[in-house]
Amino acid sequence: MSTLKNRLPPWLRLLRPHQWLKNGFVLVGLIFGHAWNQPDIVLKAFAATAAFCLLSSAVYVFNDIMDREQDRLHPQKRNRPLASGAIGVPFALALLAICLIFALDLIFRVVGYAHWVFLTYLCVNIAYTLWLKHVVILDVFLISAGFMLRLLAGTLAVGIPPSQWLLLCGLMLTLFLGFAKRRAELNALHTDEGAAGAHRRVLVQYTPHLLDQLITVAAACTVITYSLYTVSPDTAFQHGGHFWITVPFVMFGMFRYLYLLHRGGGGDAAEALLSDRHLILAVIGWLATTLALLTGNI
Fold first, then answer.
1. I need a labelling partner for 38 at 20 to 30 A (CA). Which of 27, 196, 221, 285 fits?
2. For 58-92, what is each residue's pLDDT tens digit?
3. How far apart are the first and last CA of the chain?
4. Longest CA pairwise span in the chain (Å)
5. How far apart are CA 140 and CA 28, in angstroms?
6. pTM of this structure
7. Percent helix, strand, coil in the chain (nearest 5)?
8. Domains by residue range for the chain, with CATH
C-alpha cells in the first residue's frame, strides 16, 4: 500500500485519497434505511459522500501545513509531500481552497440541507488541528466525532431518521480506532517519550498500558453494542430476525486489526483495510451478508 501511495503525484498524496474510504460511513444510512431504490436520496447520499471526501482532504492539507515541522520527526510522516518539501505551502493552500469551494458547492447546491453537519465537521477539525489534539482523551473523542458527523450526514442530509443503535455502535467503533491509532503512533516512535512529545505533544500523556486498557474497553463496547443492535426488536422488525449472523465478521475484523496493531502495524485503519487480505475478506463477508439480509435474500 505504501509503495502504491509513493507512486502517486505529490499533490494527490497530499489529498490522501486512500482515506476517502472512511467516508463510506456516510452511506450507512442509505443502506440501513432501505433507500437504495430511491434515486433522489441516492444522489444526495453520494453527493454528501463526495463533499466529505473534499472536506476531509481540505482538513488533511490544513493539518499537514500546520504540522509539517513535527511530521519531519516521524519515521513515516516525514515522507509526506509538505514535510519532505515536495510541495510548497502556497500550492497546498491553493489546493485546500479548491477542495473547499467544490465541497461547499455540493453541500449547498446538491445535498441542499443539514448544512450544519458539514460545517461542524470543518470547525471541529480546525479546532482539533490548532489546539484540541493536544488534550489527552478529548483528542480521540474528537476523531470519533468526525465519524459521527459522517453518519449524521448520511441520514439527516438525505432525509433518513438516524438510528440510535447505529450511532452508538459508530461511537464505540471509532473510539476503538482512535485509541488504536495513538497506540500505533507510540509503537512507531518506539515509545520514546522525547521523540513522541516532539512529534505529537499529547503522546507524552499516553502510555502503552493506558492505551491498551482504553482499546480493550472500546473494543468490548463495540462488540456488545453491535451484538445488541443485531438482536433488538427494532432491528428484527426492519431487517429480519437473522441479523446476528453478521456479528462474527465484525469480531473477526476487530481481532485481526488488534493483531496487526500488536505486530507493529494497524496505525492507519484505511491502509490496513486496503492492504490486509484478512480484513478485506471480513469486510466483504460482512457487506455481502448485510446486503443479503436487507434485501430479503437470506
1. 285
2. 999 999 999 888 888 777 788 889 988 899 999 99
3. 35
4. 56
5. 22
6. 0.85
7. 80, 0, 20
8. 12-162 (1.10.357.140)
